[in-house]
Structure formats: structure tokens, C-alpha cells
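Hey, can you fold this one?
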Amino acid sequence: MMKTTIPAATLLMAGLLVMGGCDSRDAGGASDGAAAPDPEQERERHPVVDERYMTPRDAGANVDSVAVWHDGDARHWLIATAKEADRLLVFDAAKGDLLRQVGGGEGLDFSRPNGVAVIDDLLLVVERDHRRVQVISLPDFRPLGRFGEDHLIRPYGLWVNPVEGGYDVYVTDAYETADEGIPPDAELDRRIQVFRMTLEEGEAKGSWRFAAGETQGPGVLREVESLWGDPRHDHLLVADEAEDRLNLKVYDLQGQFTGRVIGEGLFQHQPEGITQYTCEDGRGYWIVADQHETVNVFRFFERGSLDPLGGFQGAQVLNTDGVWLTREAMPGMPDGAFFAVHDDGSAAAFSLDEVLPALGLEPCR
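Sure. Predicted structure:
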């Protein structure tokens, strides 16, 4: 059950005041060593929604990202990457029970799996240390192919867009200098790598399409991991975690910077996982994790305008990396669920029929 409800107008006004009236560091951002926001004040500012469940915790696994698969009937799976364990963890998405672990055999060897996505009956996994995307069929977890080794250097996150004849796969590439620093801006033109993936006689094949990234100005992507796209509005949001940035760059699906940056002065910590709540009529919301060990906020933006709409906190979940959202009905969650990683060791589920009312937001009809 949700604990606090704040009208959407109040949340929107608060978000606009923050956007217009203070810099992220003034409000307690960590980039200049200022004190972090007081957790109790943040809890008063953002409604708190109880988690429906937390998955069994395994801190040593270093859980990073999550995705959900439904079989159209009774199976609902929450699939999480475990970076340190080189495994995938498969949970019952309706209840949180661990069902199985995948990896280390049967052709599914992972090396630091990070980003993960589900589309149709396909599971795509980014392996940072194998420098590739691996494609796996569901529900049998049969390997179908892999791609990207010739172009990716240090891949992290991905988003998949269905197109005629296949899928476009967008991957962030956080390549570094020899001393593990961020390269000069002039060398950041490959922060986004895009591949066309096709299925041919049961085999997944990926061909490189293009790379993207500004090399000067506000669109430069310095420290990247999460991204997500919206074909309806031709938006590709890319989180920049660099301490002097802490915002989202808005590109289009052709890899061109639109000139827009959102969340400047709003994100107090690292912008992390990104997902969408989408309606068939074009309405909906972006949800982005503002990651922190004590003040962890899930910030909402209007789907088309990208205007801030407030945010909420979980009663327990902190330090969120990856997030995922499904509108598929599940037992106990009739309008779908929002999932968020909790502090590197587990994942939390929130019922959308509690999250949206807490923010005064309208569901799809």
C-alpha cells in the first residue's frame, strides 16, 4: 500500500521550481562534495510507495539490470543480470521467487552481463567484458547468436526498436582512455552504437549501422550507461552520469542531438535506469532512476513534452541501477508493474495501480 499521496499539480510546481531556481549541486548533488539531501526532507517531497515484494538478496551477484517476459498466459518472468556472478537470475515476476539461474554452460557463457532487454520472445544481453550483445530465445534460453565484437569496446546499456524486417539495437559504449579516464570530447563520437538485428533460419545476426555522439557543446555524452527510445516522438534519451552533467541528453533515433537536455538541476545524483509507460494514443511517461544509497528517487517526465512530473521513492529500495516497466496484468498487479534494482543484490516490484495514483497521474484507458 502507498503511504503518501501528493497532488500532481504540487509535484509539478515543485519540479519546475527546482528546474528553474537552483543548480543540482546547490540542492545537494555530490559533484562538488556538498552534503547529500536529508532523507527525511526528500521523503516529504516525494511520495513513498511500498514495494509489493523484494526478490531474494544476493549482494555478491552484483545485480544490475532487469527485464520482463510474459508468455501470454500464466508465466511472468523477471530476468536480472548478475555482473559478478556472470549469470542471469530468473524470478517469478508476480511473486519474486527465484526460479532458476542461467549461464556457465549450454552455450550461454557470460562475461560481466550488464544491460538486458526483452522483445517478443527474444532476450538480449550486453556483455561488457566480451564486448558484445548476445541474443537468446525464450522460454528455452537457447543461444541464437551474438554481435558487436568488431565495434563495441566497453558496452553497458541497450534499447531495442522493432523495425520492418528486424530490430534496431542501440547500445551505449563507455570506452575509456588507457588510464581509465573519460576521453576528450573530440573522441566521444561513438558513445552510441546502433546495429540492425535480423533472424534468419533461427539465427540472430547483427550488422553495424552507425555510431553517434556529439563532440562539442551540451550534447556531449561523457559517462554513459542507460538509454531508451520512443519511436512515436522520435526521442532517444541517454543518461549522462558525469558528475558535472547529471542529466539526460535528447537525441533522435537517427543519432542526431536535438539540442535538448532535460533534468539539469533536477537530478541530485546519477541518472540511471530509464523506461517508459506508454499509451496507444501517444500519451505516457518516462521514468528515470535518480540513484543514491539513501535518497533514491524515481523521476517522471511527460512522454511527449519531456516536462518533469515529480517522482516517488520506494519504502525499501535504494541505489537503483536498472529499471523496467510492464503494463501486462499479473496476479495482484492488475495494471502491470514497475521493477527496480535494489542496491546491487535484488530487485523490487511496484504495482502501477499504486504508483500512478501516488503521483496524481492518469493511467492509459
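The first helix runs from residue 8 to 21. Let me know if you want another pass with a different chain boundary.
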